[in-house]
Inverse folding.
């Protein structure tokens, strides 16, 4: 998080992590597509080879609250391929929240696991733990054949602490919900640490509503948050402080 | 473009306010764009960074302003306009226009990128075609300025509709936004490349450190091993000398007469003791050679004497195996700078080895001839022109008609304790120490040893040793 007191601007860094070809870039493209032109900047894709991300993608989203604080979201993806370990470590540094994009297909389970371990290791290198990091998990590619069943994922999700979302990023399904969930968690953690709501007279619920609206989802926030199939969204993470 | 931004962190480049207009855009390219814009429209355009630095400027000296500059009141009016335009407050949309009291106008627009102000562009002065008449303020500015001249020059000012100018400004803003976006992307890409290289370098360095530590440890262990070997060999030799001595005394009957059988047994004890002593001496030599504590006592050495002596020493063994030894030394060989005792040891070892692996009625040939070697180290390619001075050397060949040595094994037979085929040890005996000592002794003489085939069968050990001591290196 970066706070610019002069311009009363808050910049939040969100990172989409996950194994190769799980749809991280597709998530960003979907967000970019639905976002109102005034809210979203250009989607920057750095260095691709055969449509694979080599460095990262960056989508800037800006929201001016009726309060006195402008919030800028910088949404990054990491390159999923195993060889780009050093780039992932660089990008994930100073992330305020992480969305882990998992591939729903059964035969990708091992890659999901490896990527998650890699995330844990990279956070460790920056002196962080998974526990401290606002994190949601998205099971993408729900429309593919041979995916892990809804029941199986719901069963696992109900045991874990991270909110879990189902998505088909290519069709934009579940993408905004995942983002709102991640932002909700991230804001809660940042607010718990920096007391932002009070300091800036910020209304985080209204802010979330505004974000959802500008991302083309006019439903009320509680309803959007309910899209999550498991895990805990209301946990304020005291460990973050 | 890279140097000023290279030191910036990833966060500064992507999140914060770390990048300025100058970081993202090439100044020459910007100047070119501004010039081309001016040529197209005739309205002067200047671009300033957020901190007020002029980055690009396309404007010829305007004749009206040049004329105004010639009078005091004109100069005051111009500097007033310049100050007002430069500090004009911009509206929400980042635009503002300034109609000067003297009749011409300016338009100022913010340059924005990613929601942040990066600088401003100033267009003007220009005159709207609808009011192309100089104001009273201009005409009565200074008595020193002629009204008719002012009128004439005023009409020469660039003309443009405010609407059209605003439209163009928006177009310029969009163009600049694109330029800034691609500049930002290029900057990030080059920084990511740098960062990745740096990160990989760091990882490699870590690995290097670990390897170096492991290597140092192994070297230390190797030294300890050599020390241990030296100590053990020395300690073993002392009691063994007694065993050999006492068994010799027994054989000589110093403790009374023995039966033939007893003598034979004691003789065996003595022989085996002697064998063991040779082995221990070998170990001791090897450890001394490895630890570098063996010093060679070099002097002028006659090769023929050494080889004849070797042949003579080995002849009983050869006779026993019905192997013929031939010494073939070229005439007129020079004396060579070598440790004659160690050289003898080298050829004793090689000859013994050759006999061992040669079947009955075979032949072992010891030969020596003069040759020349390059002074340069064959492992260091390059500098051939300088280093290729030839040095006189003696090439020794120990050729046998035995079982030969397979190509793949040739570089390994000189390793300590290595045997081509462990079954041959049982048949032919030996510890596998001899050749490793040989190689080290030859190294000590700046020489080389290699193995080639003998025709029709067998192996040849080719030893090449320079005649004189090296003067280089």
């Amino acid at each position: 998080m970066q706070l610019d007191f002069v311009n009363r601007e808050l910049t939040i860094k969100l990172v989409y992590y996950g194994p190769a070809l799980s749809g991280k870039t597709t998530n960003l493209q979907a967000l970019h597509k639905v976002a109102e032109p005034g809210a979203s900047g250009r989607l920057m894709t750095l260095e691709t080879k055969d449509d694979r991300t080599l460095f990262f993608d960056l989508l800037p989203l800006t929201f001016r609250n009726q309060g006195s604080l402008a919030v800028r979201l910088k949404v990054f993806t990491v390159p999923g391929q195993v060889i780009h370990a050093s780039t992932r470590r660089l990008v994930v540094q100073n992330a305020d929240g992480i969305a882990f994009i998992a591939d729903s297909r059964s035969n990708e389970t091992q890659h999901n696991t490896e990527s998650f371990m890699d995330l844990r290791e990279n956070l460790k290198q920056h002196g962080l733990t998974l526990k401290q990091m606002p994190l949601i998990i998205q099971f993408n590619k729900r429309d593919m054949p041979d995916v892990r069943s809804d029941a199986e994922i719901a069963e696992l999700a109900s045991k874990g602490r991270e909110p879990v979302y189902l998505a088909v990023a290519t069709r934009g399904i579940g993408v905004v919900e995942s983002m709102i969930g991640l932002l909700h968690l991230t804001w809660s953690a940042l607010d718990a640490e920096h007391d932002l709501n009070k300091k800036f007279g910020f209304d985080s619920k209204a802010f979330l509503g505004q974000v959802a609206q500008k991302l083309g989802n006019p439903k009320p926030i509680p309803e959007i948050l309910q899209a999550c199939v498991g895990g805990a969204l209301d946990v304020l993470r005291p460990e973050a402080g | 473009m890279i140097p000023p931004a290279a030191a910036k962190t990833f966060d500064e480049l992507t999140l914060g306010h770390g990048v300025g207009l100058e970081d993202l855009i090439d100044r020459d390219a910007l100047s070119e764009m501004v010039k081309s814009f001016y040529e197209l429209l005739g309205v002067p355009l200047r671009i300033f960074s957020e901190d007020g630095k002029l980055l690009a400027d396309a404007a010829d000296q305007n004749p009206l302003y040049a004329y105004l500059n010639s009078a005091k009141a004109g100069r005051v009016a111009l500097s007033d306009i310049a100050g007002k335009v430069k500090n004009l407050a911009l509206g929400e949309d980042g635009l503002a226009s300034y109609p000067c009291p003297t009749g011409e106008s300016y338009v100022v627009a913010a340059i924005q990128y990613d929601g942040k102000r990066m600088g401003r562009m100033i267009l003007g002065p220009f005159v709207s075609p609808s009011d192309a008449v100089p104001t009273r303020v201009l005409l009565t500015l200074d008595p020193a300025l002629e009204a008719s001249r002012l009128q004439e020059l005023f009409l020469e000012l660039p003309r443009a509709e405010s609407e059209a100018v605003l439209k163009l400004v928006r177009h310029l803003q969009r163009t600049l936004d694109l330029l800034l976006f691609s500049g930002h992307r290029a900057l990030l890409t080059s920084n990511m490349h740098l960062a990745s290289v740096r990160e990989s370098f760091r990882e490699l360095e870590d690995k290097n450190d670990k390897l170096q530590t492991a290597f140092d440890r192994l070297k230390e262990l190797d030294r300890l091993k050599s020390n241990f070997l030296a100590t053990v060999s020395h300690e073993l030799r002392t009691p063994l000398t007694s065993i050999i001595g006492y068994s010799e005394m027994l054989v000589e009957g110093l403790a009374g007469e023995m039966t033939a059988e007893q003598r034979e047994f004691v003789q065996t004890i003595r022989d085996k003791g002697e064998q063991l002593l040779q082995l221990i001496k070998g170990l001791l030599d090897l450890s001394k050679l490895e630890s570098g504590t063996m010093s060679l006592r070099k002097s002028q050495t006659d090769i023929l004497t050494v080889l004849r002596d070797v042949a003579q020493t080995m002849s009983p063994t050869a006779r026993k195996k019905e192997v013929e030894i031939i010494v073939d030394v070229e005439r007129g060989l020079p004396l060579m700078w070598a440790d004659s005792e160690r050289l003898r040891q080298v050829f004793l070892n090689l000859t013994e080895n050759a006999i061992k692996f040669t079947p009955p009625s075979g032949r072992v040939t010891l030969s020596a001839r003069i040759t020349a070697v390059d002074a340069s180290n064959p492992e260091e390619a390059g500098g051939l022109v300088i280093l290729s001075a030839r040095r006189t050397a003696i090439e020794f060949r120990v050729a046998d008609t035995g079982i030969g040595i397979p190509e793949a094994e040739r570089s390994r037979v000189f390793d300590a304790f290595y045997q081509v085929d462990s079954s041959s040890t049982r048949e032919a005996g030996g510890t596998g120490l001899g050749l490793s000592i040989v190689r080290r002794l030859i190294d000590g003489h700046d020489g080389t040893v290699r193995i080639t085939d003998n025709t029709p069968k067998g192996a040849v050990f080719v030893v090449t040793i320079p005649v004189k001591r090296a003067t280089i290196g």
Notes: The radius of gyration of chain B is 48 Å. Residues 26 and 119 of chain B are 14 Å apart (CA to CA). Residues 296-466 of chain B form a domain with the Heat Shock Protein 90 fold (CATH 3.30.565.10).
